[in-house]
Specification:
Elements lengths: L13 H16 L4 H10 L5 H16 L1 H9 L8 H15 L5 H10 L6 H17 L6 H5 L3 H11 L1 H10 L7 E2 L5 E2 L1 H8 L8 E4 L6 H8 L3 E6 L2 H13 L11 E5 L12 E7 L14 H4 L2 H18 L3 E11 L8 H13 L6 E5 L8 E7 L5
Parallel strand pairs: 3-4, 3-6, 4-5, 6-7
Antiparallel strand pairs: 1-2, 7-9, 8-9
Helix pairs in contact: 1-2, 1-3, 1-5, 2-3, 3-5, 4-5, 5-6, 5-7, 6-7, 9-10, 11-12, 15-16
The chain binds S-adenosylmethionine (SAM).
Length: 385
């Protein structure tokens, strides 16, 4: 089983490689979240913009691809190496196998930033990896070649079909690209599509029940509606307020404002029939956005998906009565699993129908090189004038 996603890259500075090794050790040994840790580490360095991009590729890439990389590296090891040596080996192998860095540069520059006592080991193993890479690497299974846990590959193949699943999994091994909206907010294009299906005429009152960091709330407010943006976590709710302030949508009196409320969306503190539209952009496994959170595929477990599906159903059923007759309800998740998408919609069907919601229209966007995977459903509530 061969994987052939290689792209040539410019040389990396020693400081960049050193920072990358330290980050990989902290992600692996301390359980740090890559997308939280790395921006903080980069903010503390004096690296140039180009080197920052390369550190990100080394850390994110070697974290996403660690199962495939370890498969190649482990053939040349007799025992599990200490974390810093493992990190150097992954980063070196990632350059050799995935980034197309010339072997001499990848090996010698990685060895140079490896602690002295592991240099011999890292040098010997990376040389063998370079030879193996130039001969073409065979992987024992699709899950190893694609570098995902077996259960994710098996589940997506079962639910999406082999070709669609493999294309989606491959796309999520690529670096994430986001678009800058007209107002300057950086947001994935699939998220922008979800926000766009929420009606937001001037004078409308819209509920965003799971709103932090406020990407969709601010887009909806930008179209003229007043948005009540709820999030369970006070720290995350603060992000909504700062994004709304920064983007100039914090003025409730003028409309196009975002009012932030810290509350549990399963028990929202609003009367029935308050909102012209409600968005439930629910917490999810993120199986459609794995390129943004490179360590997430190794953390998430099948039981998390069942727990999240129960929460998603509760959130949706809590939001529905808050929508006025004639109003709109939107459910969205950046995941691909049937349990969190079509099964949540199916499970809430009877309750929503009893409230007068017509059958929803649903969309599933699979992840590509340019966008995250996203699922959403839109219901209209009957009885409006
Ligand atoms: C997918 S994110 C929302 C992203 C946001 N809509 C945006 O576009 O920027 C899900 C959010 O739900 C929040 N959350 C989790 N459980 C919640 C609950 N019970 N009630 C309200 N918010 C919750 C999380 O803190 C997280 O910020």
């Amino acid at each position: 089983m061969k994987d052939s996603s290689r792209s040539a890259g410019p040389p990396v500075s020693a400081d960049a490689r050193r920072t990358a090794i330290e980050a990989v050790v902290r992600i692996e040994s301390d359980g740090a979240y890559a997308n939280v840790l790395l921006p903080k580490m980069l903010a503390e360095t004096e690296l140039e913009a180009r080197d920052r991009g390369l550190v990100t590729e080394l850390v994110y890439g070697s974290t996403r691809r660690k199962r495939a990389l370890d498969h190649v590296v482990d053939r040349f090891l007799v025992a599990d190496p200490p974390p810093v040596a493992r990190a150097a080996l992954r980063i070196g192998a990632h350059q050799l196998i995935e980034m197309g860095t010339p072997p001499h540069a990848a090996v010698s520059a990685t060895v140079q930033v490896t602690p002295k006592r592991f240099r011999g080991l890292v040098n010997a193993v990376l040389r063998k990896v370079a030879t193996a890479a130039s001969a073409g690497i065979e992987y024992p299974s699709q899950a190893v070649a694609l570098s995902y846990p077996d259960w994710i590959v098996a589940r997506l193949i079962e639910e999406l079909g082999e070709q669609r699943a493999v294309d989606a999994l491959r796309a999520m091994n690529l670096p994430a690209r986001s678009q800058r909206r007209e107002d300057g907010y950086v947001q994935d294009q699939s998220s922008q599509q979800v926000a766009a299906v929420v009606p937001a005429a001037r004078g409308d009152l819209v509920l965003d029940l799971c709103a932090a960091p406020g990407g969709k709330s601010t887009e909806i407010a930008g179209r003229g509606a007043s948005v009540v943006a709820v999030d369970l976590h006070p720290g995350r709710a603060g992000l909504i307020a700062s994004n709304a302030n920064r983007l100039g949508c914090s003025d409730q009196l003028e409309g196009n404002g975002v009012a932030v409320v810290v509350a549990d969306g399963t028990a929202p503190p609003f009367p029935r029939g308050t909102f012209d539209a409600a968005l439930v952009d629910a917490p999810c496994s993120g199986l459609g956005a794995l390129r943004r959170r490179p360590d997430a595929r190794w953390r998430i477990k099948p039981t998390n998906i069942s727990d999240l599906a129960a929460l998603q159903r509760q959130l949706l059923e809590s939001a529905a009565p808050l929508v006025v007759p004639g109003g709109t309800l939107v459910y969205s998740v950046c995941t691909l699993s049937a349990k969190e998408t079509t099964e949540v919609i199916g499970a809430t069907g009877a309750e929503l129908a009893a409230l007068g919601f017509a059958a929803p229209s649903s969309s599933l966007l699979l992840p590509t090189a340019d966008r995250d995977g996203m699922f959403w459903s839109v219901w209209n509530r009957g009885g409006g004038s």
